[in-house]
Model the fold of this input.
Amino acid sequence: MTSPRTVVVIGGGISGLATALALMEQAKARGVALRCTVLEAGHAWGGKIVTHKIRELITEAGPDSFLSTKPAGLELVAKLGLTQELINTNESGKKAFVYSRGRLRELPEGLIAFTPGQIGPFLKSGVLSFRGVLRVGLDFMLPANRSTSDESLASFVRRRFGREAFERMMEPLMAGIYAGDAEQMSARATFPRFVELEQAYGSILRGMLAARSANKGGARQAARRTMFVSLKPGLEALVTALIGRLSSQGVTLRSGVPVDSLRVRSHQLGRWTYDVMLQDGSALSADSLVLATPAFVTAELLRPLTPIAGGLLEMIPYASTATIALAYPASVVGGSIEGFGFVVPRIERRELVAATWTSLKWPHRAPSGQLLARCYVGGAGREAILDLDDEALVERVKAELKEICGLAAKPTYMEVNRWLKAMPQYRLGHLDRLEQAEVALSRYAGVVLTGAAYRGVGIPDCIREGALAAEKVIRYFSGERH
Ligand SMILES: Cc1cc2nc3c(=O)[nH]c(=O)nc-3n(C[C@H](O)[C@H](O)[C@H](O)COP(=O)(O)OP(=O)(O)OC[C@H]3O[C@@H](n4cnc5c(N)ncnc54)[C@H](O)[C@@H]3O)c2cc1C
Done:
């Protein structure tokens, strides 16, 4: 009997855990005997996924939901037996607002889903001027840009839809996902679908309309799910279920063990073995390594093996953000608290980036009679506010809420969650640099990268990329060089 192949996954966020699960499944399917270990530096599993339960309040320090339109998230939920726990956003109050020229204005529904609807709601919302709306429509007529060079997200959106639509509507929605500056973000890396639609249909709107009519059946099937979904007990339930499943499958899970460095132990007849040195001075060896750590950690770990890959990964910058949860007795809340919340375009030069009325969006997150709000600050170029201590930060956020939507009540619960160097920024040239790093790394067979730093920051992206990383490892073990 051949001895099992060993793989060490470094990083126990959703990417590392999803990779470990996919490794076990794919190894079983391909008849590969496998021993898998996951190493996590922190004492908790799940990385950015952190749910807090405070009496009857459920707050999410990091992500609070995920897209149902990217199948990997829902598939993992089903696989882990959590489908019963899935919750949709509250259908009855589904409105979103943008703060524009001194007041909150409702965003046209189709825009929130990035699907073009009727022109009427666009005009009625007042978010764009008449000229601005007409300029959006020009997308149907403008020729496609056939250049293959990377373009910033800001330039791409301005070119297709005009400056006003970019600054007043799309910038806060798109940049919010990446906590990024659209002037520096790569369109290809952040919103590849838009770039593909332009190439395929010559127009984003035409492409979306075509995709929508082609997907009528699928849309009916998926209609049970709103665009964003979450889990009733909080997203950490996904992590708990993953840990349970991995343990039951014999995966070794070690938390509180930061990896210090990596080295090649041996390389004979095309078979590589690596040493993983831990900060406590111990080491373990493996035939394959999956690095599911943030890019700046991965860069340091890889530098001794390949300075080229290390240098390229180090070039992926990270933005810092904070989420602030505030709870109020609903009876004392005044102001315009409506819908799911609002976003604030960069052009408004305010400190608040967005606010979600969590308890209106997900009624299970707070007991009735309480309003739970979640506010975002920080992001690329807007990080100065994070220098404030918690108390001053909350005061600043409260002042913003009062000015923007008239919410002047005193919160009965406050929580500040800081996320330093948490959001990878896919800057111009990101995908080219990534490809070069992977080429440099390919010399080391069985060493694979995954995680939010590379091809999508959302939870479903991380799960999908984890499965692809696992596939590379299993193919390598099966004798197919990746
Ligand atoms: C505030 C915020 C809100 C967000 N909101 C959403 C949302 O609503 N929906 C959504 O889909 N996405 C959201 N995201 C993005 C998403 O949460 C992340 O992109 C995703 O969780 C990242 O997962 P990951 O496993 O790749 O990385 P991480 O979660 O960062 O995991 C990496 C792990 O590696 C560990 N590690 C680091 N160094 C070492 C070492 N030397 N040795 C061992 N382990 C190490 C870390 O401790 C960490 O646990 C949000 C992110 C943030 C910060």
Notes: The chain has three domains: 5-47+237-316+426-477, 106-222, 319-423.
